[in-house]
Amino acid sequence: MPVTTAAAMISAARNALIEEHSRRIDAGEPVIAVAVEAPERTGRSFASVEHGLGDHARKLR
User: Fold this and answer.
1) If pLDDT is split at 50, 70 and 90, which confidence band does 51 have?
2) Domain range for residue 41?
3) What residues contact residue 5 under an 8 Å CB cut-off, 6+ apart?
4) Which end of the chain is more exposed for a tag (fewer CB within 10 A), N or C?
5) How many Å apart are CA 15 and CA 7, to the nearest integer?
6) How many domains does the chain have?
7) In the prediction, which pLDDT does 2 show?
8) How far apart, in whole angstroms, are the C-alpha atoms of residue 27 and residue 9?
């Protein structure tokens, strides 16, 4: 995988996490609730980047 593709995937995962956290907070969810779940969500997101989309690609068809 070219370095630029890997960088784009990492950046996209990071941006998606930021957007999701901001959306939840803007919707009135307590910041602490978002913060408590952030490490687990981050781990899942970057695991998807590391290991590919797996079953997600099949679910999108």
Assistant:
1) confident
2) 3-59
3) none
4) C
5) 12
6) 1
7) 74
8) 27
Question: Hey, how many other C-beta atoms are within 10 angstroms of the C-beta on 3?
Answer: 7
The mean pLDDT of the chain is 88
What single-letter amino acid sits at 15? Answer: N
The one-letter amino acid at 45: S
pTM of the model: 0.77
Distance (Å, whole) CA 39 – CA 46? 11
CA 4 to chain centre: 18
Contact 25, 17 (CB under 8 A): no
Q: How many helices (H) and strands (E) does the chain have?
A: 3, 0
Query: For position 37, what pLDDT does the model report?
Result: 96
Of the candidates 55, 58, 61, 14, the one whose C-alpha atom is nearest the C-alpha of residue 38 is: 14
